[in-house]
Amino acid sequence: MKKKVLFMVSSMNIGGVEKSLISLLSAIPKDKYDITLMLLEKKGGFLEYIPEWVKVEESTWFKDVKPIIMQPPQQTVKHFLNKKMFLKVISFINAYFISKYFKNRYLYYQNVLKAVPNNLNKYDIAISYQGPTDIIDYYIANKVSAKKKISWVHFDVSKHTINEKLYEKLYRSYEKIYVVSKQAKKNLIEKLPGINKKVEVFMNIIPKEVIKEMSKIPVGFDNDYKGLKIVTVGRLSKEKGQDIAIKVLSRLRSEGYEVRWYCIGEGIDGAEYEQLIQRYSLKNDFILLGAKPNPYPYILQSDIYVQTSRHEGYCLTLAEAKCLEKPIVTTNFIGAYEQIDNGYNGFIVGCTEDDVYKKLKYLIDDKYKRMEFKNNLSRQVLNGNEDFERFLSFVE
d(Cα 11, Cα 28) in Å, to the nearest integer? Predict the structure, then answer.
């Protein structure tokens, strides 16, 4: 009999977590597992990439809970008052202030999700894949019946605010907590030392041959441009540091370097970055390409790949650039040190405009160093298979 497995994420928007989930689902043998993917909202550019044998469901309750979680508490109280839901007003206010006083968000979510029905299915494994995401971790812990539960942490918790008392309680319901890098594991245990024995590293699966095949798909990519092309992939947000990239390119262009920078991704800071591009007179040189489900042809056709992130858990796009053997400059987030041997197959620099500028300029000037990085990357062996086999053994 097939094992019943539930995965849960918020949506299938184009991003690293969603892409890593698709890689994992594609690797799981469909003859042994009955997979259900539950989405808080059934949307996103990666929906069409979910393996067809995976059942996709949308939560029926999230639309009612979303406003409460997203809006200021005053608006929630006002809404309840307008609807004459006076008992809910009292209950919500009590939960909100008690949670705040004791610095324990568990009490808050207990109130907000009280009316959410239990999942009627029974699973062998239930996986909160987008951790730490409070609402998903809470739902799997309290509303799902499963023999084993896994929380998958994709972010560096030293750079993200998490409510420690909430997660101390939530993680009691989980048998295993996977993190995507060794340093991310260390940082998580420092915040929550009581989960030490549950935490394991599971590096993202990188389907190298699939990436190489997808990179060959023809795309129009400034084919007439004769200068160097730099590519960065990531959500347009301060976390990903595209503002640093814009300022670095401004300095390079002012010194006469014939180079263009292309950013793949969408995000909340897109409009602000467009204004920054205008301010630095880079309209024709710093190009926002938008989200691309398949960024690999653009990476393949670039001369240098740059990652300007202020923090990452692992950084899947960096691993993909390695697959395509691109010379790399990356900032020093925790996952970079587990992927790049500084000076051998790329450069790791401080997360400042000056540090990125100096090493990128050096790499632009030295084509032999670029070739050295490329050659060293061509001999790399990617990690992930042993972690995947361990995961399957745990599921069994």
Answer: 20
Tell me: do 236 and 314 sit in the same domain: yes
Last residue of a domain, one of 202, 237, 259: 202
Q: 380 pLDDT exceeds 90?
A: no
Domain tally, the chain: 3
Give mean pLDDT, residues 243-271: 97
DSSP 204: P
User: HEC profile for 38-104?
Assistant: EECCCCCCCHHHCCCCCEEEECCCHHHHHHHHHCCHHHHHHHHHHCCCHHHHHHHHHHHHHHHHHCC
227 vs 225: CA distance, rounded Å: 6
Residue 88 inside a domain? The answer is yes
pLDDT greater than 80 at residue 383? no
What confidence category does residue 205 fall into, taking pLDDT thresholds of 50, 70 and 90? confident
- Extract the tokens encoding 237: 């947000």
In a domain, 383, yes or no: no
Contact 51, 25 (CB under 8 A): yes
Give the pLDDT confidence score for residue 155 in this predicted structure.
86
What one-character DSSP code corresponds to residue 2?
P
Alpha helices in 206-301 (DSSP H): 208-214, 242-254, 270-279, 296-300
Q: What is the C-alpha to C-alpha distance for residues 290 and 270, in angstroms, rounded to an integer?
A: 9
Mean pLDDT to the nearest integer, 230-256:
97
- Does residue 247 belong to any structural domain of this protein? yes
**Six-digit token pair at 332?**
């020093």
Q: Report the length, in residues, of the chain.
A: 396
| Domain membership of residue 93 as a residue range | 65-113
